[in-house]
UniProtKB/TrEMBL annotation, chain A:
CheC-like protein domain ranges (all copies): 99-133, 297-332
Pfam families linked to this entry: CheC (PF04509)
InterPro entries: CheC, CheC-like_sf, CheZ_family_phosphatases
Keywords annotated in UniProt: Chemotaxis, Hydrolase
Protein name, entry field: CheC-like protein domain-containing protein
GO molecular function, one term: hydrolase activity
Domain of life: Archaea
CDD domains, A to Z: CheC_ClassIII
GO biological process terms, semicolon-separated: chemotaxis
SUPFAM superfamilies per UniProt: CheC-like (SSF103039)
TrEMBL record, chain B:
Protein name: Probable chemoreceptor glutamine deamidase CheD
EC number in record: 3.5.1.44
Keyword Signal: no
Protein keywords: Chemotaxis, Hydrolase, Receptor
GO molecular function: protein-glutamine glutaminase activity
Catalytic reaction equation(s): L-glutaminyl-[protein] + H2O = L-glutamyl-[protein] + NH4(+)
Keyword Hydrolase attributed: yes
Main function: Probably deamidates glutamine residues to glutamate on methyl-accepting chemotaxis receptors (MCPs), playing an important role in chemotaxis.
Residues annotated as signal peptide: none
Protein family membership: Belongs to the CheD family.
CDD domains: CheD
Gene3D superfamilies: 3.30.1330.200
A Pfam short name: CheD
């Protein structure tokens, strides 16, 4: 089953406009000035959906919808921001639980009706939605269960992050459509055949990336003695100008390489500053116990970035049966978005949208977290997927070690 | 066009200045004493224009040099069309190119892997200057190039542009 880049772009735009409309409705009701920060389509393992919400409490409303598109959607506010929003709507209601709750329900209803209607208008068909259901949950439990489908372990998630300008508070709109109804709809809206992406192969590609990440994690373990596990792996699709926003404004330390072959693109290995210091010191023969990032730390990060990159890229190359080379790593120490920005610009010279491949690894022993982000050239990724032998990929999942040796 | 007249936030504007966030490939114009901010400028450039005469200020965050190089997309993504869009929006809000002044920051050469030719950062900078010159808007302050990222904050009432980097002290243009 093939979908084209154009329709992925259109669907992303739909979700973005829906989120904008929903945010405007809220603005009219409350006077709160908020903007939609990021909208992206992500394909990931159902177990990993909502990983980024862990450790926070949310209130919100859930709807299910059916018609040409089936699934669930949720609007989730941080607990604190929910209180402030209802206070803006109905002064004095912040402390009254019942009023706060009905305020959230009302806002949720208006916001999400706008969101769903936008989709229905575009496809020119009816999408019905259920009455809103009020929820109070922690972490990813705020999201509806990802739709079950025996054939597909992975799900598409549309996620919009909305930022409230005067406060550092974010809220989220998630939409989890049924895989089949979504892909059927995408196929129906294919405009051209020229730039089609074999959608099922994207899943295979994700599985391979997970293996590549595990290889990179094993390399970390080998060099540092710290048991490290691959966590989330996902592939997202977003307009090129939204790509730098995928990374926070915090300061990161890491390495960047350009890789060439099929596909070509850029690959980043990023650590937050604390993780960078911790992992670098684990590699050093002597105790440093430093609070600051020194040149020695950076040298260790360079070495580690290099070996993680190789593990990751070799994983792809082996399964894709292509040759993927990479430049020596360049060490970066800067705000996350500024690191991603020139890479997005370079890719953006040739394409309007981009695929972003993200993985994470963690360890329980010390505070340590690493992110790998790859930004492939879209045309070449498409070509690589086209050539991907699904048979061989199936073998891969059965015997990963043989392929990713 | 995005013009903020502050009518929705009058009470807030009196105490602390309103913060207006400008995303990548976006521009905003204000006639209020607001703070226009944009973050994560790598090879991107933030162009801040201030007209002290009409008290109109605007900020655009451009990503690539020229709209002619790629099909489609929004005007604020490119240095040439982005500067033009910002100037026109400011004129609509009552500003004049006769009294506008520009300050620019960003255009870093960080992570430029191109082996030949100039970096996107420097091409962005060249195109920004060229376009501002076409409109007769002088550049009165700049912090360009280098190998680090920047975030900027434009004080709409004074025209001061505060440039912040991850590893150095902030400076005011």
């Amino acid at each position: 089953m093939n979908v084209d880049i154009q329709s992925l772009g259109t669907f992303n735009q739909l979700a973005h406009e829906g989120a904008e409309q929903a945010t405007q409705s809220m603005g009219q009701m409350t006077g709160i000035d908020a903007v939609v920060d990021v909208t992206k389509i992500t394909l990931l393992d159902r177990a990993d959906v909502g990983e980024e919400l862990v450790g926070r409490d949310f209130v919100g409303v859930q709807f299910s919808f059916d018609g040409v598109l089936e699934g669930d959607t949720v609007l989730a506010f941080d607990v604190d921001s929910a209180g402030t929003i209802t206070e803006e709507m109905m002064p004095g209601s912040g402390d009254d639980e019942a009023m706060a709750r009905s305020g959230i329900e009302e806002i949720g209803n208006i916001m999400m009706s706008g969101f769903i209607d936008g989709w229905a208008d575009y496809v020119g068909a009816t999408i019905d939605h259920s009455p809103p259901k009020y929820i109070e949950e922690s972490g990813s439990d705020v999201l509806p269960d990802a739709p079950e489908n025996g054939d597909h372990q992975q799900v598409f998630v549309f996620k919009s992050e909305i930022e409230w300008i005067d406060e550092s508070v974010n809220f989220y709109i998630y939409m989890l459509p049924e895989y089949e109804s979504l892909t059927e709809m995408m196929v129906e809206h294919v405009d051209t055949d020229g730039d089609a992406i074999p959608i099922d192969k994207l899943q295979t590609f994700n599985e391979m990336t997970t293996s590549g990440t595990q290889q990179a994690a094993d390399n970390v373990e080998m060099m540092t003695g710290i048991p490290t596990a691959a966590e989330v792996t996902q592939i997202s699709f977003a307009p090129i100008e939204d790509v730098p926003k995928q990374i926070g404004t915090d300061t990161f330390v890491g390495t960047v390489v350009e890789f060439t072959g099929t596909p070509s693109g850029y690959l980043m290995v990023l650590f937050d500053e604390v993780s960078a210091i911790n992992v670098a010191e684990a590699m050093m023969p002597i105790e440093m116990d430093s609070e600051e990032l020194t040149e020695q730390h950076k040298a260790a990060i360079e070495e580690l970035g290099n070996i993680m990159t190789s593990g990751f890229v070799d994983g792809w190359a082996n399964v894709l049966q292509t040759s993927v080379e990479h430049t020596p790593p360049r060490v970066v120490h800067d705000m996350g978005r500024a690191i991603m920005d020139p890479l997005a610009a370079q890719v953006g010279q040739h394409q309007e949208h981009a695929f972003i491949i993200d993985s994470e690894m963690r360890t329980d022993d010390i505070e340590f977290q690493a992110e790998i982000h790859a930004l492939p050239n879209e045309k070449e990724l498409r070509a690589a997927l086209d050539d991907l032998d699904v048979e061989r990929a199936t073998e891969t999942s059965a015997d990963v070690e043989q392929i990713f040796k | 066009m995005k013009v903020y007249d502050g009518s929705q936030t009058e009470s807030a504007a009196q105490s602390t200045p309103e913060r207006i966030k400008v995303g990548i490939a976006e521009y905003k114009v204000t006639t209020e004493p607001a703070l226009l901010t944009t973050s994560g400028l790598g090879s991107c450039i933030g162009i801040a224009i201030h007209d002290p005469h009409s008290m109109v200020a605007g900020l655009v965050h451009v990503m690539l040099p020229s709209a002619a190089d790629i099909d489609g997309g929004n005007s604020a993504k490119f240095a040439d069309t982005g500067v033009e869009a910002l100037i026109e929006a400011m004129e609509d809000a009552g500003a004049s190119t006769d009294t506008m002044e520009a300050k620019i920051a960003g255009g870093s050469d960080m992570l430029d892997f191109s082996e030949s030719g100039s970096s996107i950062g420097s091409r962005n900078a060249a195109k920004v200057r060229e376009t501002l010159e076409e409109f007769g808007v002088p550049v009165v302050g700049e912090d360009l190039g280098g190998d680090h990222g920047r975030s900027v904050k434009l004080e709409a009432d004074t025209g001061n542009l505060v440039v912040k980097s991850a590893n150095t002290e902030s400076k005011t243009l």
